[in-house]
Amino acid sequence: MKDLMNKIVSKAQDTAGRLKDKAICTYLRFTQARQRTAAVLSSQSGEGFVDTALKILISVVVGALLLAGLYMLFNDTILPTLTDRIKSLFNYKG
Fold this sequence. Notes:
single chain, 0% strand, mainly alpha
């Protein structure tokens, strides 16, 4: 009888120990998740629509300046089909 009681008490202690370990792990995971969430929400970094639009605008202007510089450097048409298309657009006869 005493042997049976010792097994029951031992089993209960093991179960209680595992439950305690699971509770501690769950608490630590919750705490870490809460800290990550707080860090993300308090972060001041980010990229907005204005920043992206400004980057695109700057790249278009730099590309146009580069193309104009190439035209002035070589004094010749670099993209001949583009010149033909532009001339056909402005020579509209209606």
